[in-house]
Design goal:
- Strands 3, 4, 5, 6, 9, 10, 11, 12 and 13 form a 9-stranded mixed β-sheet that branches.
- The chain is 42% helix and 22% strand.
- The longest helix is centred in the first third of the chain and has 27 residues.
């Protein structure tokens, strides 16, 4: 059965001439997008796209279908604008503060979906450290802020959660001999260590200190999680990073869960003056319906 996502995908593929980029635009996997296009073409009874080696073209009938799909999506967008106007939401603006690791992983898809539902509301993202985000919330500089591991009852919406993982060279003896239950902080504390902070107070060093341990051999300190993994791949040491921040390319790396497991949770917190804002509440309501994002990672060495 054809649904709204199918039509968005058709238009995105036509614009990008590429299924992978279109799938990312609408929030699907490449395999899911390819399957959806095949189902839609089967339902229509004719091909919409032509497939060449490195290019996706549009058939003559496909051009007509996509033209109608654009009109339908534009009309739907106009209806949503009218709905926002009726609730006083048109022209609304939300200032949302976040720190780098969340800005690049959790937020893009969430904000893309919200913009489709509420095209009249603009969301402006301000990026800083987790400490700066807290300061901006307290000072009403922003309307919402992403807070890590907030106190019980403080969060307005839980965005997602993931676990901390150890990353070491693929030929590291401890990685090669690791069992399914992972590796302890004690086993990592004495290793040559690449300390990555991700712009957050909670990082490999603070996790060790919370466990009553100390890093004895910090070789390099970097801000970016992916940079730390690149240094690990070069054999400069091991590191601790959140699983959602793992690079797409794991060649040369061994990733192990930490045992006992350590998780972090990302939540949205309203500033004191924004509890009653219509635009802010619309965003929070949409995120509550979407639910929390979980990452599921298993031991992998490549």
């Amino acid at each position: 059965m054809m649904n709204l996502l199918h039509w968005r995908l058709l238009v995105a593929v036509a614009d990008a001439s590429n299924i992978s980029r279109a799938a990312e635009e609408v929030g699907m996997t490449q395999s899911g997008a390819s399957q959806a296009i095949a189902q839609l073409e089967a339902s229509l009874g004719f091909p919409v796209f032509t497939r060449e080696r490195r290019h996706i073209g549009v058939t003559a009938l496909g051009e007509q279908v996509i033209e109608q799909a654009r009109i339908m999506l534009e009309r739907l967008n106009a209806i949503r604008v009218l709905a926002d106007e009726s609730r006083g939401l048109k022209g609304g603006r939300i200032r949302l503060a976040s720190f780098p690791s969340v800005t690049s992983t959790f937020l893009p898809g969430l904000l893309r979906d919200f913009k489709r539902l509420h095209p009249g509301i603009d969301v402006v993202v301000l990026e800083g450290t987790d400490e700066e985000v807290e300061e901006w919330i307290a000072a009403d500089t922003v309307d919402l802020g992403v807070v890590m591991n907030p106190e019980p009852g403080r969060a307005d919406v839980v965005l997602g959660q993931d676990a901390w993982v150890a990353v070491m060279p693929s030929r590291h003896p401890q990685g090669q001999n690791a069992k399914a239950d992972g590796i302890t902080l004690e086993a990592l504390a004495g290793q040559p260590f690449i300390l990555a902070t991700g712009g957050c107070v909670v990082n490999g060093k603070s996790l060790m200190e919370q466990a009553g341990l100390q890093l004895s051999d910090v070789r390099v300190k970097v801000r970016d999680w992916v940079s730390a993994c690149m240094l690990v791949r070069e054999g400069m040491g091991v590191t601790l990073i959140p699983e959602s921040a793992l690079p797409a390319e794991l060649r040369g790396l061994c990733v192990l869960p930490v045992t006992p497991s350590i998780h972090r949770e990302f939540c949205l917190v309203c500033s004191p003056s924004e509890k009653s804002s219509g635009a802010t509440q619309a965003l929070l309501q949409g995120l509550r319906k979407r639910g929390c994002t979980h990452f599921d990672y298993s031991i992998q060495c490549q």
